[in-house]
Write a sequence for this structure.
C-alpha cells in the first residue's frame, strides 16, 4: 500500500499544457488499482444486497477522488501547494470521503480499509497542513484500531504504515513544490525587473540620442528660416546639414533598436562643434582625446552630448567650453546658469552611466554660466 504515495505526485506539478494535465489525470487513475481489492470482494458477495451498496460506494469513492485530484491540479497551476478550497469545502470533501470509506468497510469488510490511504491523501490535498496531518493520522490509527477490534478482522499494521508514509510523501512533495513555485516566482520577478530595466535603459538612450539630434536640427531649421531671404547659399547649406543630421539621427535610432550603438568621444566633439556653430555659440573644444582612458571614452562622450544639448537648449550662452582629463570631463558655458533645467531625464541617465563605472555627475550654477562635470576616480 505504500506505493499509493505516488497518487498525488502528479497533482503537485501543475503543468500549463492541457495535454500534460490529461496525462496527469490518467496516471492518477492508475493508482485506483488498489480499489480493485474491495470491488473484487464485493463482487464475490454479489448475492447479498449489501455487496451492491459496497460496489456503488467504492465507485463513488473513486469518482470523487479523481474529481478532487482534477480540481486541485487545475487550480494549483503555478501556485503554491496549499488548499485552494475554502476550509468548509475542504472539510466537506474529506467528510464525504470518510463516510464512503466507512460504508465500504461496513458492507464489504476489511478489504474496504484500502480507502484509508486515499482519504489521507485527500486530507493533504484539501486541508491546511496542521489540519491535514491531524486528520490523516486520525484516519490511519482509527483504521488500524478497527483491524484489531472489529470481530472477524485480522490485525494489519501495513495499513497504518502505508497511510502514514503516503501522508508524509504527499506532504513532502507539497513542500518541494512550494519551494519550486517560489523559485519560479522569483525568476519571473527578476525577469520582469530585468525587462523594466532594459526598457528604462532603452528609453534613456533614445532620449539622449534624439534629444541631441533634434535640438541641433531645430536650431539649424531656425537658422535656415532666417537666412532664406538673406543668404540663399548659406540657407541651402543649412538645409543640406538638416538632411544629413536627420539621416544620422535615424541611423542612431536604428543602431539603438538593434542593440548596437558605437558612441565615440572624437565623434561627439565633432558634432558639438557643428551644433554650437549652428547655434552661433563660440566653441572652445579640445583637439585631442588621447588623455582619456579607453574605458571612459563612451561615458565622456555621453557627457559631452548631454552637456552640449543643454547648452544649446537652455543656457542662452555665447561661449561653451569643454575640458577633458584622464578622469573627468566638464562642459561649461557663460549663460544664465540654468543648464540643467528641463533636462532631468538626460542628467538622470548620465548619472546612471557614471555610477556604473564608479563615477559621479556634478552640476553647478556659476556667475555667470553653468557647469556639468563627470568625475571618475
Amino acid at each position: 500500500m505504500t506505493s499509493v504515495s505516488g497518487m498525488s505526485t502528479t497533482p503537485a506539478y501543475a503543468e500549463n499544457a492541457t495535454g500534460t494535465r490529461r496525462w496527469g489525470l490518467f496516471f492518477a487513475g492508475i493508482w485506483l488499482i488498489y480499489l480493485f481489492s474491495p470491488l473484487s470482494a464485493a463482487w464475490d458477495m454479489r448475492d447479498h444486497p449489501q455487496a451492491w451498496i459496497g460496489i456503488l460506494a467504492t465507485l463513488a469513492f473513486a469518482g470523487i477522488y479523481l474529481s478532487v485530484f482534477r480540481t486541485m491540479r487545475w487550480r494549483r497551476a503555478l501556485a503554491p501547494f496549499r488548499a485552494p478550497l475554502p476550509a468548509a469545502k475542504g472539510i466537506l470533501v474529506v467528510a464525504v470521503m470518510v463516510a464512503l470509506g466507512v460504508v465500504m468497510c461496513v458492507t464489504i469488510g476489511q478489504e474496504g480499509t484500502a480507502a484509508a490511504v486515499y482519504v489521507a491523501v485527500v486530507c493533504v490535498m484539501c486541508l491546511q497542513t496542521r489540519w491535514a496531518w491531524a486528520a490523516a493520522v486520525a484516519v490511519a490509527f482509527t483504521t488500524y484500531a478497527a483491524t484489531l477490534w472489529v470481530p472477524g478482522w485480522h490485525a494489519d499494521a501495513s495499513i497504518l504504515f502505508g497511510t502514514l508514509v503516503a501522508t508524509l510523501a504527499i506532504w513532502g512533495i507539497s513542500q518541494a513544490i512550494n519551494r519550486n513555485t517560489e523559485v519560479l516566482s522569483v525568476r519571473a520577478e527578476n525577469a520582469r525587473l530585468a525587462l523594466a530595466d532594459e526598457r528604462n535603459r532603452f528609453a534613456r538612450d533614445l532620449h539622449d540620442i534624439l534629444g541631441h539630434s533634434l535640438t541641433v536640427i531645430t536650431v539649424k531649421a531656425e537658422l535656415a528660416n532666417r537666412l532664406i531671404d538673406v543668404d540663399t547659399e548659406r540657407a541651402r547649406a543649412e538645409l543640406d546639414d538638416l538632411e544629413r543630421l536627420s539621416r544620422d539621427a535615424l541611423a542612431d535610432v536604428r543602431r539603438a533598436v538593434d542593440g548596437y550603438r558605437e558612441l565615440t568621444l572624437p565623434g561627439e566633439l565633432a558634432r558639438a562643434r557643428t551644433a554650437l556653430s549652428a547655434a552661433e555659440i563660440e566653441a572652445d573644444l579640445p583637439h585631442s582625446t588621447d588623455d582619456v582612458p579607453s574605458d571612459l571614452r563612451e561615458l565622456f562622450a555621453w557627457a559631452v552630448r548631454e552637456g552640449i544639448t543643454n547648452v544649446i537648449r537652455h543656457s542662452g550662452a555665447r561661449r561653451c567650453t569643454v575640458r577633458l582629463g584622464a578622469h573627468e570631463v566638464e562642459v561649461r558655458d557663460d549663460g544664465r546658469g540654468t543648464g540643467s533645467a528641463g533636462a532631468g531625464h538626460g542628467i538622470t541617465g548620465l548619472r546612471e552611466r557614471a555610477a556604473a563605472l564608479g563615477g559621479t555627475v556634478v552640476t553647478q550654477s556659476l556667475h555667470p554660466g553653468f557647469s556639468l562635470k563627470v568625475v571618475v576616480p
